[in-house]
UniProtKB/TrEMBL annotation, chains A, B:
It holds the Pfam family Aminotran_1_2. Gene3D superfamilies: Aspartate Aminotransferase, domain 1, Type I PLP-dependent aspartate aminotransferase-like (Major domain). This is Histidinol-phosphate aminotransferase. It comes from Cohnella lupini. Pathway: Amino-acid biosynthesis; L-histidine biosynthesis; L-histidine from 5-phospho-alpha-D-ribose 1-diphosphate: step 7/9. It is an enzyme of class 2 (transferase).
Amino acid sequence: MSSYWSELTASLVPYVPGEQPKDQRYIKLNTNENPYPPSPKAIKAIQEAANADLRLYPDPTCEDLRVVLADYYGLSKEHIFVGNGSDEILAFAFPAFFSASKPILFPDITYTFYPVYAKLYGLPYETIATDDSFNIDPAMYRIPNGGIVIPNPNAPTARYMLTDYLREILDANREQVVIVDEAYIDFGGESVVPFVKDYPNLLVVQTLSKSRSLAGLRVGMALGHPDLIEGLNRIKNSFNSYTLDRLALAGAVASIEDRVYFEETNRKVIATRERSCEAVRQIGFEVIESKANFLFMTHPSQSAKEIFATLKDRGILVRYFDKPRIERYLRVSIGTDDEMDAFVAALREIAS
Amino acid sequence: MSSYWSELTASLVPYVPGEQPKDQRYIKLNTNENPYPPSPKAIKAIQEAANADLRLYPDPTCEDLRVVLADYYGLSKEHIFVGNGSDEILAFAFPAFFSASKPILFPDITYTFYPVYAKLYGLPYETIATDDSFNIDPAMYRIPNGGIVIPNPNAPTARYMLTDYLREILDANREQVVIVDEAYIDFGGESVVPFVKDYPNLLVVQTLSKSRSLAGLRVGMALGHPDLIEGLNRIKNSFNSYTLDRLALAGAVASIEDRVYFEETNRKVIATRERSCEAVRQIGFEVIESKANFLFMTHPSQSAKEIFATLKDRGILVRYFDKPRIERYLRVSIGTDDEMDAFVAALREIAS
């Protein structure tokens, strides 16, 4: 606390990212990173972009990347916004589309950055209860609101929602912007990107951090009606004209273009997820069916907090949230088959 | 305009960055980029960091870079914040330290992003008139205010202020944060970084975009009392935990460590600036004495707007601001000797 801070600064409760330990080499299953490296073509493109042109500003409109994404999604570049990770895009979207007059709605159990953004901009919000199995009920999103954020699949629950339910939410809220946060959509879910042309109130947010193994490059994208994209650009250009550096732009283009590598990596992550899910269920854990690159799991009699601590002692890092409703759960990112075998073996010893 | 925009979005007048033309190869003297490439060590470090670890998030605390910067400036890492360019740091600093209750003060002629930040966060501001030669008078910064932003050297005027004057402003405003924006300080000015230990209200902002030839990498830094740094971190961690990617972190560390290259490049830019300044004065331009990597110049009888357009037709891009008080001026970034010779030759033809 400092007398130089604004009231806002003093009032904030910032987001806490997952541990990035430096002290030892963990089996790192705590921040939903992809266990496989990015496309070799992306790495090569970055190495080539590391040249004398770094003295020049990057393209502030990120046009090349937007053109490649437009082609990939079957949209036009006017439908596409890119940012420094999907977190930055969400940080622009909240003030771009939401106001102090009506609350933003999002699920009670979800990405914990949503309420942080709301507080940063002084925007009211209401959380909508998920059911006992963490399902989102579209009918509950019919109350008056100033905008909606729905992650699909949800995090940390991994709960996936059929796109028909999202259509129901979009239909019931045509006057407000509905953000569908699809950070984890590539691991088996169906995207609502095809809805973009029908719903001018839909903004879909995705990222290269998970399914494209580029958490370290900081690139996310938003897809929506050109009016929404222009709204995002107005905020961005009041904040920082050049949010993506030349290396991120080059790497992202090459990554999106390498569809074969992308599909192969996702297939491997999904196969390992299904294997791991089956294995931890056999140990006695309840696991929510996942369409993401992580599992959300609980044991009927054992403490999640203690399992988390014991795993950490054994060099396996998973994520534990000491929060109401989910304090009995662990979130475990999908690693390689070897990493998951080590995790399952440790869990078997700890939990039996 | 869209019904989905917030009132804020509709009210914004975003910043307009200098042209990044794609249509042809210009002699590009319009965005104050450095004509020399970044340190070869920075390029090598980036190429080496383009590896499988890009699948992992970067260090959200940017510790390695902060340690290197602390060593460079003779401070501790707790005095240092890094961000996605100095623009992002300023975008965090405005809400971190300024409030709606009292106006922010900055010069009337200055970086046009300052009022944009203020509007983004709904913060009132007052501009303080510079004199006819664009000098900043410290005595005018004694009126009630909620914080001050002073660029030194100023942009686009290039006008440099002795640090004693900045001390006067700091002394007169001990209750508020004074941001000194030193984006151009390395081209011959004296930094106020040594004041950081004496003034808990001082935040110095610098960048790797200009003197380190890394505009394309997006790295800036702020130096100040640990309480101010913590304030910046509270805003940042309510916005985006990972603003610097792994490549930017690696490149920035190597760049800061290569002092020899840095000093050599700056010497060259300064020598070219002095030569160019003399040459354009001989043509009949009035040029403000510059401690930056650009010249701010006016001709007693010729239209700056027309010269700008004619230069552009000839493939030479400079910056023209069609704004009161400076509509007779051109801002010209310092290029290589060859580029400046071409610029001076063209100017001689146009303006005589």
